[in-house]
Specification:
There is one protein chain. This protein is α/β, with parallel strands linked by helices and 243 residues long. 48% of the residues lie in helices and 12% in strands. It has a single domain (4-239), classed as Rossmann fold (3-Layer(aba) Sandwich). The chain has helices at residues 19-28, 47-57, 69-81, 109-121, 123-135, 141-150, 157-169, 173-178, 197-205, 221-224, 226-239, and strands spanning 4-8, 33-36, 63-67, 87-91, 183-188, 210-214. Strand 1, helix 1 (19-28) and strand 2 form a beta-alpha-beta unit.
Length: 243
């Protein structure tokens, strides 16, 4: 299924932010089957359980990709599948979302804890804040934020909290080093959630993978600039011999 690309969304906002990108990719190559799969609705914070569900439900031998949390899960699943994964692409996905001493290009633990506590006390307000953070750096921050929030599904707070804990627990460095298939990692220059410095940190870790930095773009660059992102992905697929 090397003509199939499965995209996984980020935390809290559902599949809608990836729809324009999927449509742009189909427009560039009608032979490419692009599917957006929702994240598991689990109350477990164990990434292995999320990966078990994804592995059981997603077809083998496809390209795996995702935005933010979805990209981190795609990276782990690609490593798990090995040769049964055609390739990997991530969009605004850090290798660790929360910083630690040996990975500083990430959100501070204090900021993350405050954000998680906000989700406990007022989920709706936290999602609104999150949509603004995703849009920060875009040419129309409020317009993009409204678009993100307006299409967000209604999700139980327990599942949202579990997703945040999975986000904090994931560390994809070993997975990316283990996966030998083609990899493309795109970052946004004005990302308020995944610092642009993560691109250089990833390049230092894996100098042989494809890495791109989209200037003057927000964390939600797949929705903000879908045609530009689609063109970068299509060029990568062509170079990998899958055009």
């Amino acid at each position: 299924m090397r003509d199939r690309l499965i995209l996984l969304p980020g935390w809290g906002l559902g599949t809608a932010p990836l729809q324009p990108l999927a449509e742009a990719l189909r427009g560039l190559d009608p032979r490419l089957h692009v599917e957006i799969e929702p994240l598991p609705l689990l109350e477990s914070s164990d990434p292995a359980e999320w990966l078990d569900e994804l592995d059981a439900n997603l077809p083998p031998d496809a390209w795996l990709g995702g935005w933010s949390l979805g990209g981190m899960l795609a990276a782990e699943l690609a490593a798990r599948r090995g040769e049964r994964c055609s390739g990997l692409l991530t969009l605004a996905s850090n290798l660790r979302f929360v910083a630690q001493p040996d990975w500083s290009a990430a959100m501070s633990p204090e900021t993350f804890r405050a954000f998680r506590q906000g989700c406990v006390t007022d989920t709706a307000a936290t999602l609104k804040r999150f949509s603004l953070l995703c849009a920060q750096g875009a040419s129309d921050v409020r317009g993009l934020s409204r678009q993100l929030l307006g299409a967000a599904p209604s999700t139980q707070p327990a599942a949202l909290l579990a997703g945040l804990d999975v986000l904090a627990n994931l560390d994809t460095r070993a997975a990316l080093q283990a996966f030998v298939g083609p990899q493309l990692h795109l970052f946004a220059g004005q990302d308020a959630l995944v610092p642009a410095s993560a691109a250089q940190a990833l390049l230092a870790l894996l100098p042989d993978v494809e890495i791109g930095l989209i200037d003057n773009a927000s964390h939600a660059f797949a929705l903000e600039r879908p045609h530009e992102i689609a063109a970068a992905i299509q060029a990568f697929l062509h170079e990998a011999g899958d055009d």
